[in-house]
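Justification of resources, computational component.

The compute hours requested in this renewal are based largely on the per-chain cost of generating structure records like the one below. Each record pairs the submitted sequence with a full structure-token output. That output is archived, and it is also reused by downstream analysis tasks.
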Amino acid sequence: MNRFTPRRLMAVVAIGALTVGAAGCSAGSDSSADTAKVTITVSGPNQWNSDPSSFGKPWEDMVARFEKAEPGIKVETNVLPLTSFRDTLSTQLAAGSAPELIFNQVPHDPKQIVSMNKYLEKPNPFAPDADTWLDVFNPNMFGENQRNALGDFEYIPLNAVGTGLFYNKDAFDKAGIDRVPTSITGLLKDCKALKKAGYTPLAMDSGSLGVGWTSETIYNMLLNKYAKDWDRYTKAGDPGDNGGIVTQKSIAAAISTGELDATKTPEVREAVKLTKQIFDGCATPNWSGIAGTATFVGADEFLSGDAAIAWGTSFAAAGLSKVDWAWAAFPFPTVTSQDTPLSTDAPAQSGIGVGGTSYMIPATTKGKKLAAAVKFLQFASSPKGGEKWLKETGSIPATVGAEPSEGIKPLLEGAWAEPKQISLPYRSKASAGKNLLEGYLLGTKTLDEQLASLENEWSTWSDETAQSAGWTDDWVKK
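The structure output for this chain reads:
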């Protein structure tokens, strides 16, 4: 089979702000001729700017190019607020009123979404050199591991994303730090030096990203010793191993059988304790009162130069174009055996993923609107349609043949770029987008109370996922 190889793209990093706003803007004209067109709506949060009605000029230009290539289709864009887009789209899915294309990070039942399998198995008309549409994508970013619990591809990635820690090199110099931390003990030591130098060590806010990226990275490092035992189902849900990457179904089975229990598994307790140590020793003191963004965690404090380190995505680096200090990026430190005896010294992993800009089609989309929605995704994910937009937004392409920019290269190579073996924490549909550890981190819950709450979230998620996927294995609760 011939694999399609587009010309190499430079992924210049761009701003990735998921910002507050709620308004619709049409990318097409309002002439009477439009009444004969099929109109589809793309609905999701803004990842690039603070405009409440537009994803920005590069997006509008891509839509205009698509409408020129497909004059029978009109595309409208509905920008949703960061704080409520999940609730809005999830409610619309349940009511059967969702628009034709919705952001993929939304609580849903897999049966509510159109399976893209049959489309991906056929050629993409905008990438004729590839045997199939799936061949256009880098298989390490979009392949078998992206199938859902039913074994379906339910979304299409328009780009890829990496996460990591960005830092103010001038602040490190002032604090006398000449290298990035490689262990939790080293990080905590550097935080003390940064505080002494007058900086908040780690910018933090009340959003779910900062605590999520911190705790999930630590969970994976401490629990990786169980990966071989828990790896029992393929991504398609069939019995068998998945090459060491523990699938959702395997995690659900481990939770349901009690092999993974937040109240009893010692590595979970240790991971939560380490997360609190980092928050207590490094994070913005009043983080719970600061609204979250998706450019950087604690963006205002970091970009102003008051904080030395911040979690961010590869999209976010363009937000550093106007700062008056030198910056760089580094992976999250490893939890070493010096940090805790429960460590196996496994390096931190994050993975280059397709959680950036990805869209799916609600199952209620039918006929010409369904065909139009598929066609737009084919265009936007092809070099012909999406290459210009990728360059202008600085996104990491999800297609083959892409190269990262120098600024974020440390986040896109080595162990940090490898996918997590165990991805936690999953959560109930009711808790989507919420900070699951807030009580313990703020001191309003004891560690035992927090672990009991976490176990309830995981158990609920396991039951909900098994029910929606229709699993009938012995461990599934009847």
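DSSP finds 14 helices and twelve strands in the chain. The domain at 9-161+355-411 is CATH 3.40.190.10 (D-Maltodextrin-Binding Protein; domain 2).
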